[in-house]
Amino acid sequence: AKVSSIARIPYVSSAKAEALLLNAKKSVASATDEVTQQLIVATVKQIMHLKKTIKTQTEIMAKACSVSEVDLLKTFIGISDYSAIGLMLNIHRQILFMVAMTAITKNPLISQIYQEHVRKGMKKMAAIGLCMHKILRVIYGMLKHNRSFDPEIDRRNREKSVQKRKSRKENKTRRYQDYDSNAPNQK
């Protein structure tokens, strides 16, 4: 829509204005009868009640499932009560995706990994998948060793991995042998 320079109000043609008014008159919001008002108020009260119930049940679930593993998982930035319990119950792709999305914005380690791979040309969804895989490995290590999340441990593990790759590349000849015509024939 065009914007008027005087009032900075979007310009709407008279036909569009009439259509908007007609639709507004037909909408529930314009209803003035008492029955419709009561229905709207009752629906809003139900929604508010359900939101309060969900919040209460989530708090009860968090207290009831306060086991050491859940508390340990919550040390990872991006995992809250709800997602820690969900991960302990069942590693669910949707929960893991939401943990990854939160970790990409709040956890410096995961954010760095994500940004690094996107910068190298990896598609964003593939980089999120890579972060999900990384988070799973971190969670496994936290639970296996019963340790809180520590990015320094990850840094040391990466250095070890680089050293192992370098040592493997240097010793390529050990893997391959010369052709031996006297060797038994494999069929």
What can be said about this structure in brief?
With 187 residues, the protein is mainly alpha-helical. 68% of the residues lie in helices and 0% in strands.
Characterise this structure.
This protein has helices at 14-26, 34-64, 68-73, 81-89, 93-106, 108-119, 124-145, 151-170. With 187 residues, the chain is mostly helical. α6 runs antiparallel to α7 (124-145). The longest helix is centred in the N-terminal third of the chain and has 31 residues, at 34-64. The chain is elongated and about 95 Å long.
Are there runs of 5+ residues with pLDDT below 50, and where? 1-7
Percent range for β-strand residues: under 5%
Cα gyration radius (Å): 29 Å
Q: Count of DSSP E strands?
A: 0
Largest sheet: none
> By helix and strand content, what is the structural category?
mainly alpha
The helix/strand series, from N terminus to C terminus, equals HHHHHHHH
- State the end-to-end CA separation: 75 Å
Mean pLDDT: 81
- Envelope shape: elongated
Share of helical residues: 55-70%
Compile the SSE list and pairings:
Layout: H1 14-26, H2 34-64, H3 68-73, H4 81-89, H5 93-106, H6 108-119, H7 124-145, H8 151-170
List keywords for this structure.
8 helices; mainly alpha; 187 residues
